[in-house]
């Protein structure tokens, strides 16, 4: 056990021909940390994760995983990584338990130990009652939990999770979150990408926001909210047909710290939502709908990366 970061990058670059997917990023991930990558499509998250996973060679810069060089020591590093890909790659013809024991054999784990680990992991992800069932009829949430269990079969130091709860219903998502939180409590380092801002707030000790291959913000979820947006957001809806939201937004100039007109409502960023609403009424405006909520990581994400879709 040392204080050396498990993941260390300086000036990390990944190019595909003339396209630069990752453009000189620096990052460090410590032992036992839950670290997240956020960003729109094409931001460079997946390319960075593939380099960390030792399946893509850096074009330039320095990258060390578990104190080793992924180019020279890729096989040794991969043996100490757990990987949960975005799409489940389970063997549908095998039973739930056999998916784990067969995968364990790739790491040279004995049959007896493979079965012991499989049963332990199935208890951990609450699938013991499905151990002898085929995988194909399992629900999406069960398959996701099994994929996470498979990523843990080699007792990894780092678990890489690519969109761990995409496509799951709320109950399944929360169960996966709870299992991942327990892994963090055990001291396992988690590195994840997600498009769910609430997931990042729940799971991540620290995260980076990437855009255009660069890191544009870094910190804990709470520190990013405090740095880039206000404590509260006032959402105002106005009667249809009277004016455009842009026109209403112009009338709200100076209310709060920032005004964001959307097609269906106007967002007013203010540290005190009630005081901002009082000022709205003082100006003679009568919204048809009002919501005062706390600012979230999604507000930060949209403030930093914009609302335009990226293909």
UniProtKB/TrEMBL annotation:
GO terms for biological process: response to antibiotic. Its main location: membrane. Pfam families: ABC_tran (PF00005). The keyword Translocase applies. GO terms for cellular component: plasma membrane. It comes from the Bacteria. One of its GO terms (molecular function) is ATP binding. InterPro entries: AAA+_ATPase (IPR003593), ABC_transporter-like_ATP-bd (IPR003439), ABC_transporter-like_CS (IPR017871), ABC_transporter_ATP-binding (IPR050763), P-loop_NTPase (IPR027417). It is a peripheral membrane protein. Residues 7-237 form the ABC transporter domain. Keywords: Antibiotic resistance, ATP-binding, Cell membrane, Membrane, Nucleotide-binding, Translocase, Transport. PROSITE patterns: ABC_TRANSPORTER_1, ABC_TRANSPORTER_2. It is found in: Cell membrane. Belongs to the ABC transporter superfamily. This is ABC transporter related protein. It comes from Thermobispora bispora (strain ATCC 19993 / DSM 43833 / CBS 139.67 / JCM 10125 / KCTC 9307 / NBRC 14880 / R51).
């Amino acid at each position: 056990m040392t204080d050396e970061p498990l993941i260390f990058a300086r000036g990390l670059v990944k190019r595909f021909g003339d396209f630069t997917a990752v453009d000189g990023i620096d990052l460090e991930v410590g032992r036992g940390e839950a670290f997240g990558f956020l960003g729109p499509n094409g931001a460079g998250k997946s390319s960075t994760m593939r380099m960390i996973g030792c399946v893509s060679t850096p074009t330039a810069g320095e990258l060390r995983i578990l104190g080793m060089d992924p180019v020279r020591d890729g096989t040794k590093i991969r043996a100490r990584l757990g990987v949960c890909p975005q799409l489940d790659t389970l063997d549908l013809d095998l039973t739930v338990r056999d998916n784990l024991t067969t995968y364990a054999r790739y790491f040279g784990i004995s049959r007896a130990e493979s079965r012991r680990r499989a049963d332990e992991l199935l208890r951990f992800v609450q699938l013991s009652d499905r151990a002898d069932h085929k995988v194909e009829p399992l629900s999406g949430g069960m398959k996701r939990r099994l994929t996470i269990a498979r990523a843990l079969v080699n007792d990894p130091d780092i678990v890489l999770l690519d969109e761990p709860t995409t496509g799951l219903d709320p109950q399944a998502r929360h169960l996966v979150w709870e299992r991942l939180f327990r892994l963090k409590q055990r001291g396992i380092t988690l590195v994840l990408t997600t498009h769910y801002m609430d997931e990042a707030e729940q799971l991540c000790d620290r995260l980076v926001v990437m855009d255009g291959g660069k890191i544009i913000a870094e910190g804990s979820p709470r520190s990013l909210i405090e740095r880039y947006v206000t404590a509260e957001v006032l959402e105002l809806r106005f009667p249809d047909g009277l004016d455009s939201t842009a026109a209403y937004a112009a009338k709200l100039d100076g209310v709060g710290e920032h005004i964001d007109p959307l097609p269906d409502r106007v967002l007013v960023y203010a540290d005190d939502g009630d005081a901002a609403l009082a000022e709205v009424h003082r100006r003679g405006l009568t919204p048809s709908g009002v919501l005062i909520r706390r600012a979230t990581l999604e507000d930060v994400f949209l403030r930093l990366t914009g609302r335009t879709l990226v293909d």
